[in-house]
Model the fold of this input.
Amino acid sequence: MAKPQPLPVLPHLPEPPRPPEAEPSEPGTPVDVLADRLDDRPREECGVVGISGVENAAELAFLALYALQHRGQEAAGIVGVDNGLGRVHKGQGLVSEVFDADKLRALRGDTAVGHVRYSTAGASNIENVQPITARYSKGDLALAHNGNLTNQFDLRNRLVDEGAIFRTSSDSEILVHLIAKSRHETVDAQIDDALTHLEGAYSLVLSVGDALYAVRDPRGFRPLVLGRKGDGHVVVSETCALDILGAEYVRDVEPGEVLKIQDGRVRKLRSLPPVAQRSPCIFELVYFARPDSRIDGRSVDRSRRAFGRQLAREHPVEADCVVSVPDSANSAALGYSEESGIPFELGLLRNHYVGRTFIQPSQADRDFGARMKYNPVREVLDGQRVVVVDDSLVRGTTSMSLVRMLRQAGAREVHLRIGSPPVKSPCFYGIDMPTKGELIGARLEVPRIAERLGVDSLGYLSLEGMQNAVAEGKPFCNACFSGNYPAPLVDVDRGLASPDGPAVC
Done:
């Protein structure tokens, strides 16, 4: 039986950041990647979980991470805390690949911190897999972070100048150093002190000894939810993770809140300094979150249906059927169908079991990745005028392949409808999105995009229409659509990061 790793003592030599890998520009590139890299969608950020006061907390953390797997498929980790002593196990791969029953039993204790990851800052290696752990003067610390700090390079440079040695290239480790070097006496004050240095997006779960802390940045970019399980408490990225645990939803962690959970009590520490406007990410509703979740009190499914209905009002077309690009566009396609009266059909099916492949497609096989993941239903499409609804359009390479597949299956007309505006700007707040030069919406006007994709018509949901569809909610961050960034881009402004996109992915 593999023993869980002991908590490491900071620090080790840092690993230099690696630049983002170039997207293959020519067909025939060998495919040896996870299934979620076979298309050009933005990649999920991360999912976090914290459990306090529940027996076998690591097992519950495993289930919660299983429900949050859509938020990151690159790596997973759990720290179990028993009488203040932390034990960690983490690895690269899916949750079900990283853990088994023996590994979970070894993570004893009634407190746990867990994380699923797709790297938005920090290289893809085991050192960067979270939770990040350390043993410092106040006890064993474990940290799980969803988001991206926009002043990470500025802070890292300052900390290195002061003698800090980093053992990862992840921006999340910066917070560990800030806590450890704080001159305040108590853990509560040290965490509070460390948080005041951060800019950007951070939903955090961290434990010090048997105390669990939950933090959401003042703008609330990334979701974070508080739940109750018996006499204990659960903090997770999305409500779908509460459902799998049979936990009761209590409330969302509010932007700027810092919560401490210990001995069955939830205590609110001093809130972070307020900002002019809260800005939860609207792309969570468009694509990232699971449709059975609620984000800041809003049903993700109902939000996407509202996007689809508004899309049908803005871009009607005479057609025989509506099909979605599964699975994230299903709700928007249903909304389009409901508003337009055009029947919804299962015209595209998704293969959920792609895994890895060593096959090298030929130079002529431009659609290999798309065919690995999607298959058209010829009986639905043959001879039909088809409305294809997708949630977003990033590079356009997958959409181009899907259009060819639909026509090969007999579709007479293909009308593409996108349930969000053109993506024109990179994200600096925790979404791995291509650089500005790779975004098709930033390079081409809509008629030219339609020509490039080979569709009979193309319609995007307007920015105003998207915001009006969820108008009863709070103001949202729409920077990837509008280019208006609500949190300061400190590293970009100081020349430490590229304005065309995050420098480390």
About this structure: The CA atoms of residues 436 and 500 lie 5 Å apart. Confidence is low (pLDDT under 50) at residues 8-38.
